[in-house]
Amino acid sequence: MSDGLAWIADAWWSSTLNAGDLYITCARGLTPEQLAERMADHEPVEIGPALTMHEASRMVDLTQIYCVGRVGRSDDWSFIVECGGSEGWALDPAVSCGAEVLILDPRPDDPPSFFTYLADGEVQLHFELGFGYDPAGAQPDLLRPALEAAGLIPPEDSLDDLLGDDEELSPREQKRRVLTVAGEHFGLTLPRQLIESGQLPTAVTRISPPSSW
How many other CB atoms are found less than 10 A from the CB of residue 16? Predict the structure, then answer.
């Protein structure tokens, strides 16, 4: 059975995992190494030994290393899972030139978390995972039909309540369902066990503090 993307919401809410170790960026049309190179604030970027999430997190010393990513592939998507001071929210859309890029940023210190889809150097879709649905980008309605069909947002011209009095989604469950829709739309699934407790090749992605610090 596919892991899909819904588990990411569980991981962000987990009491045993640090959401700041789960900044996830995926790309179709780039190798994992190319994705790491485009995201890094320095060059050259070297792909190092395979590490667990906790081992990669311990590399972040906030003096010479501010962010470490672990890279992998899932079908035709490359992915990088970063620990430390990721700036997914400020990633230059140019990283997606000739490719597609998805950003799943937990924003643990400044919620809400968000989802962003970049393609051909532009923001195609961006929305927050929580506090309503207010999409932006060149294709703001890209996921609207699927989200409406899943009962997560009302039809654009409707003011009716989506849920009856007997059902109210928790923020966590809402994130799970939105991520499920996104994963199905983009044909993306990520390996939960490998990311949470397995080893993946590692690359330092930031050697300077994020601009937000």
Answer: 6
